[in-house]
Amino acid sequence: MSVLARMQISVAVGCVWTSPESPRALDEAALRNPADIGGWLGGLTVPDKLNLSDDNRLQTQALFGTEVLVTEEWGDWAHICIPEQTTSKNGLGYPGWIPRRQLAELQVGTARAERAEAEITAKRATLTVGRTKLTLGYLTRLRVSEVTADSIRVDTPLGAGVLDRNEARIKSFANDDPVPVHEGRSIAEQAARFDGLPYLWGGLSSFGFDCSGFAYMMHRSRGIPIPRDASDQALEGETIARERLEPGDLLFFAAEEGEGRVHHVGIYAGDNRMIHSPDSGSVVTTVRLYEGKLANEFCLAKRYWGRGAAYAG
């Protein structure tokens, strides 16, 4: 598969679809630029959300400024791969289709390792670009041009922008410290911030997560890369026995009483509890382990934090 262009996402959250025919009329708000993700989700019923998975419509999402590789164009659509979302589906990154209007030319400038980035730490943050205001999601990353006492000036796909200093942190990749050995608990603590957030199939933003997107983003919040999907996440990392579980470990569930295909993942929260994003009719919630409909489907646990659990991505 050849790469036609390197581009970046130019909307707050770009939905990546299975095909150009996948979106329905009721998904129009998510296809615009600017996209209205909040308005789109607010208008979806539970059956509407279920249909995203039942008919295999939505694959994943990508945040504002994320680099993507364009591998094909078809009318107003582009087939992309997302390098930072690793997957067994495609060696270039997570694949799918997105409206071309939601892409912008990739900025050419200082290499990532030599430029600080602003990473959104608020669940949602306001970016101001001229007279335009965008609501960005958690962990959106943008290159920094200047920092003041109360603001961060950033380079964006739309031009120079400004973030509130209290809604983001500065990350300097040239001076990043290794992940602390006991970083697992902070993964669970970050996850707890999203208690009550509605589930979204394919969701990878603080507007709505699916189960593996939730695990992926909570690890990303600690600087730990893991694969995008639960089935791939279950193949990497360090396998952990039940009696050795610690907060931040990932718990996997499979069909056929744990012997079949992996279909769900949650984050161990300690004290025999798990926090997860369950399904289209639910919200992020904390439950007792080995109770409810998942009780007989637990198959294994994995650890990506700490020594011996590194995953290169």
Automatic annotation (TrEMBL):
Keywords: Hydrolase, Protease, Thiol protease
InterPro entries associated with the record: NLP_P60_dom, Papain-like_cys_pep_sf, Peptidase_C40, SH3_16
Protein name: NlpC/P60 family protein
Organism for this UniProt entry: Paenibacillus hemerocallicola
Family of the protein in this entry: Belongs to the peptidase C40 family.
Biological processes per GO annotation: proteolysis
Any GO molecular function: cysteine-type peptidase activity
Any one Pfam family match given in the protein's UniProt record, by short name: SH3_16
Record domain NlpC/P60: where: 181-313
Family annotation (PROSITE patterns): NLPC_P60
